[in-house]
Amino acid sequence: MSLVKFLTSKVFVKQLVLAVVVVIVLCFLVLKWLNISTNHGEFKSVPDLTGKSLGVAQIELEQETLTLEIQDSANYNPDYPKFSVIEQEPKAGSQVKEDRKIYITLNPSGYRKIAVPDLRQRTFRQAKPTLEALGFKIGKTTYIDNIGKDMVLGLRFEGNPIAAGEQLSKTSTIDFVLGNGNGN
Fold it and tell me: pTM of the predicted model, to two decimals?
C-alpha cells in the first residue's frame, strides 16, 4: 500500500477526525478547569497596613483571605510606632488573588547597635566623617592641653567616656575631647 493511498483511506480520515475531536474536547475541559480553579476575574483589594501593629495587620489580611509574610525589620523609622508596619508589597489598593502573600516590613524597637571605632590619635577632620558614615551624630567638642592640635584624645557619650568597640545605638550623639595644641 502506498503512502498516498493510506492518507486518503477511510480508516486514516476517521482516526484523524477522532484525534482532532479529542484534542478540542480536552482543550475545552482544561480551560474550564482553569477558570474554576484560578477564580478567574475574582480579585481582593490589598488593605493599607502602613503604621498598623502586627496583630491588626494580621486580622485585616485574614478578613480579606490574604496571607501575611514578614520580610524584614532592619531599618528603624522614628516616624512609626515600634513593631508597626512601615512598608508592604504589593502596595495598598492593589488587586490580588485570594490567599496571596502580602510581604510587610516591620519597624524594630529601636536603632541597631554599632561598635564605636578606635579614633584616638587621629585628627578631628578624620574622625568626624568616620562617625557620621556609621550613623552617629557629632556633639560638643572639648579642648584640653595637648601638643596635638585637634587630635582626638577621647570620645564621650552622655558625659561618660567611650571605649573603642563599645556598642551604641545608631544616631547617638558622641562628644569629642580634643587637643588644643598647647603642651610641652
Answer: 0.57
